[in-house]
């Protein structure tokens, strides 16, 4: 193994250990004693992105740890009503947002409710761009057209075009064969300014041929953007992944990432894992592009003023808080200034470039002094290059960012795991809280079946 390889291996292992340390040892979640008094407030002159969580799916996929419940129309309707109430709360607290990201779950699972919510968001705030996520069963052009002028970017989960992989993760039965999904995607093209197609790579036992075939098919459909996520595993999903996809002794993440970058050299790289046909101003990862964001909905995270702020996960808990005009927040976790600066360094590098003077003025920092160690290490291992006031990741640097973001997302699962059991709390008072006219017994039945 050459010296370069050894240095890179050491750098990757150091980076992994240090983010793990930050997320595990130092991630100090405080369950608030008086959560009702916590109010999210904007800082004058700061811009924020709005994130709204839609925690419903018809069926669950084994690799997915996002906060979700089995879909029930009545529960979802009440949930969306609460989401709109929380939107109004944010307006009352003085927030303005330019862009909105609706994540899930499957955000188009109840189109009428989503439409009402997006219209309200646009009425309340100066929102000019909305991104949403969905699955291949919710992209019929007739249904999408009602969101014309509302949604700017729709990302559709495909995960793989390989029938065997789709069968193993249960998506073949749910969303159809690879050929069916390709047809659905082709029909959905052109409805919105941007259609993004999500794939996952480095699945256990995935071959290079399967990856190349995924890339070839994705490029032939020619959506505006293709995102390739490295498989993220955490304690919440490890067993289910092993059970369905098996276990592999070989980790192909880096090799496959290099193949991906080579095969997308004719695309514009929007961030470490997204490739666009053309450069666009649309924000991709809400975490990356806007370092400060406000999350609404059950289990949504906000990142505000150096704190990760966590909304109630349990649907009833969330509903009770919102219905009584209280804040949905239940916990938060503070970062030290140094951690904040490192986090912002990571997300900017993940996005592809740090403008040194903008970074310094936005964070009231001096990146070369405050992060002297990190900067010299990144330079030493050949992960970044600096010129004309811009710091850019090299190919290797981009891969480090991808692994760190992968670790960061898996780290968020630790937070979800803390509150997951909470989501199972059967809710004796569910419908009384969510809606007075509702039938409580039915609500209990629904909730005991829906908790993820
Ligand atoms: C919140 S999901 C919503 C997608 C939509 N519900 C669907 O299933 O098509 C957004 C995307 O995250 C990605 N994702 C989910 N779990 C992942 C994991 N464990 N590793 C890598 N990517 C993952 C998938 O590509 C997925 O399409
Ligand atoms: S991948 Fe999509 S459909 Fe599958 S469980 Fe996650 S959010 Fe739901």
Terminal CA distance reads 45 Å
Gross CATH architecture of the domain at 35-289? Alpha-Beta Barrel
Shape: globular
Mean pLDDT: 89
- Low-confidence segments, ≥5 residues, pLDDT <50? 422-433, 435-441, 448-452
Instruction: Please give the largest β-sheet.
Output: 9 strands, mixed
- DSSP summary, beta strand count: 18
Proportion of residues in extended strands: 15-25%
The SS-based structural class is alpha/beta
- Helix count, per DSSP? 19
Assign the CATH topology of the domain at 35-289.
TIM Barrel
Ligand catalogue: S-adenosylmethionine, iron/sulfur cluster
Radius of gyration of CA atoms, rounded to a whole number: 22 Å
Which strand order do you get reading across the main beta sheet? 10-11-9-8-7-6-5-2-12
Task: Please give the CATH class of the domain at 35-289.
Answer: Alpha Beta
The name of the CATH superfamily of the domain at 35-289 reads Aldolase class I
Q: What helical percentage do the residues reach?
A: 40-55%
